[in-house]
């Protein structure tokens, strides 16, 4: 009975060592894949999420400012249209 128990203990140790080795290989493969993807993203000139969010916020601010200026311009144009047009003086050549 003792040899069977010892044999099972040895098999468990070997299996545990194999699982540990596989976990290490998996972590190494994950690191290599991540490294390759980062290099590919850098080669394609892709932007990071932070850069994208910063540009998006800037564009939203610019759009809000543009809308504010459009309203201001429309108000100024409305005021301009309500005023009578200034009289033009007749040119001297037209009266001769």
Can you put this structure into words, describing what you see?
The protein has helices at 2-43, 49-82, 92-95. By secondary structure, the protein is mostly helical. The chain folds into 2 domains: 1-46; 47-82. It is rod-shaped.
Mean pLDDT: 86
- Strand tally is 0
Q: In DSSP terms, counting alpha (H) and pi (I) runs of 4 or more, how many helices?
A: 3
Oligomer: single chain
Terminal CA distance reads: 135 Å
Helix content: over 70%
> Structural class per helix/strand content?
mainly alpha
What share of residues are in beta strands?
under 5%
Helix/strand order: HHH
Largest sheet: none
Report the radius of gyration as a whole number of Å. 39 Å
| Overall tally of domains | 2
**Poorly predicted residue ranges:** none
Q: Given the C-alpha coordinates, what overall shape results? A: rod-shaped
Defining traits:
96 residues, 2 domains, mainly alpha, rod-shaped, 83% helix
Per-chain topology:
Layout: H1 2-43, H2 49-82, H3 92-95
Structure summarized in a few sentences:
Helices cover 83% and strands 0% of the residues. The chain has 96 residues and is an all-alpha fold.
């Amino acid at each position: 009975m003792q040899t069977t128990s010892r044999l099972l203990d040895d098999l468990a140790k070997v299996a545990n060592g194999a699982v540990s080795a596989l976990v290490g290989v998996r972590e190494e493969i994950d690191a290599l894949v991540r490294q390759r993807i980062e290099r590919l993203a850098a080669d394609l000139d892709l932007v990071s999420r932070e850069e994208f969010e910063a540009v998006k916020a800037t564009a939203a601010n610019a759009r809000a400012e543009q809308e504010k200026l459009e309203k201001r311009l429309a108000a100024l144009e409305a005021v301009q249209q309500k005023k009578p047009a200034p009289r033009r003086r007749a040119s001297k050549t037209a009266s001769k």
